[in-house]
Design goal:
four-stranded antiparallel β-sheet, 48% strand, 124 residues, single chain, seven-stranded mixed β-sheet, mainly beta
């Protein structure tokens, strides 16, 4: 599967953005999906995941501000980001996993396919 992330941009603190990740192929609904981010000079970190059964998982620090969702009819994954903070500045990546069996949705190694990333810049 090929993933194309978009929707990033520049926003002031307190603003909102909605990221999209369009997947190619007919099997999007069978994949578990996730969002990760990598801030300048930092390691990639888990943001959120949604299973094929629409079970959501979030990193604790982002719970309540970020919402992951999917529209299988459009082969698209979303990340709604509200109340953005300068610390949210990062390149955001979407990823697809055939299964989380034997792995954790928090780990990048659990994912089989990655999108190219979209940059989010939050200014104070």
């Amino acid at each position: 599967v090929q993933l194309q992330a978009c929707g990033g941009g520049s926003v002031q603190a307190g603003g909102a953005l909605k990221l999209s990740c369009k997947a190619s192929g007919r099997t999007f609904s069978s994949y578990n999906m996730g969002w990760f981010r990598q801030a300048p000079g930092k390691e990639r970190e888990f943001v959120a995941a949604i299973t094929r059964y629409r079970t959501n998982t979030y990193t604790d620090s982002l719970k309540g501000r970020f919402t992951i969702s999917r529209d299988n009819s459009k082969n698209t994954l979303y990340l709604q980001m509200n109340s953005l903070e300068p610390e949210d500045t990062a390149v955001y990546y979407c990823a697809a996993a055939r299964s989380f069996a034997g792995g954790s949705p928090y780990a990048g190694s659990a994912y089989d396919y990655w999108g190219q990333g979209t940059l989010v810049t939050v200014s104070s």
